[in-house]
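Researcher: Final request for today, and then I'll write up notes for the group meeting. The sequence and the SMILES for zinc ion follow.
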Amino acid sequence: MTEQQTTLAKSVSIEGQGLHTGTKGTMTIKPAPANHGIKFQRTDLKGQPIVEAHINNVVSTDRGTCIGNAYAKVYTIEHVMAALRGMQVDNAMVEIDIEEIPIKDGSALCFVKAIEEAGLIELDAEREYIEIDEVITMEIPEKKTKIEIRPSKRFSLAVVIDFESRVLGEQSAILDDISDFKVKIAPCRTFVFLHELEFLLKNNLIKGGDLNNAIVFVNRKIPQEEMDYLAELFHKPKVKANGKGVLNNLELYFDNEPARHKLLDMVGDLFLLGKPIRGHVTAYRPGHYANTEFVRMIQNKVTINAFPND
Ligand SMILES: [Zn+2]
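Model: Predicted protein-zinc ion complex:
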C-alpha cells in the first residue's frame, strides 16, 4: 500500500511566548507543495529568510533544538516538529515573527489541535521513508545514554529516562504506532528541576517561563524563605510542592508524563531527517544533543548507502 504525502488544507496561526526569550509572537503553519518538507521562515527579518528543518541546519541543542543558517535562527523547534510528524504532515511552511517557537503549555498539544483544525490534504506524490537495513547504535558513556535503531517495517519508539532522583527515577514510555501520538504523547509537558529553574531564572535564560509551561520537580527539601523567594520570582502569592515532588499541586496527565515528553522530543528531533523513518528505536536517557547526534549518524549511513562509490 502506498501512502500519499500530505500538507495542511489551510493556514493556521498560534500566538504565544518563547520560553527563553520571553518575546510574544505569532507562528503560522502554512500548506506547502509535495517534496517541500518542513521549513521555517522568519517573517520579522529582512528578506524573510527560510531555514529548512534538517539535521544539517542544527546549530545548537542547548535546552532545545535550534536550527539556523547564515541569515536566521529558529529556537526550540522540537515540539512543533513532533506535532507535525505525529499528525503525519510531510510538508509545511512555518512562518514565525520571533526567534523562538511559542512554548504554550510546554507540550505539543496546541500545535496538534491547530493542525487538526486546519485539516490535511493529500498531495500528488508518494510519501518516502528513511529505511534502515542494519542496527545502528550510539552511546555517550559520560551521559549514560544509549540510542539504537533496528530495521522494522514501521516506526516505533521506546524511551527510558532516569534522573537518579527520588522524585524522578527510572520510567519508560512507548509509542507503538504514530497514530497514537495525538492522544498518548502530544499532551505531555516538558519538565524541569527546581534547582535548574533557579539557575535559569537567575541567569536570565528563561524569560517566558512561568509555572504554567513546565512541570517543576522538587527533589530536595526547600526552606520556606527560598519558597517565598521563588514565589516572588514567579509573581505568585505562594508556591509549594506536593507529596510527589511536583511544585504547585500540578496534576500529572500520566504517571510517566516526563518519559512521554522525552519521547515527544525525540519524535520531533528524528523528523530532522527530513522524512519519516521506519525502524524500532530504543533510547536510554535521550536528550536533544544525543538525539541530534543519532540523527546525524543515521543521515551519514543513509547517504553513504545511497552513494556507495563516493
Ligand atoms: Zn521538550
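Model: The domain at 4-131+259-306 is CATH 3.30.230.20 (Ribosomal Protein S5; domain 2). Residues 78-79, 190, 261, 265 surround zinc ion (CB under 6 Å).
Researcher: Thanks, that's everything.
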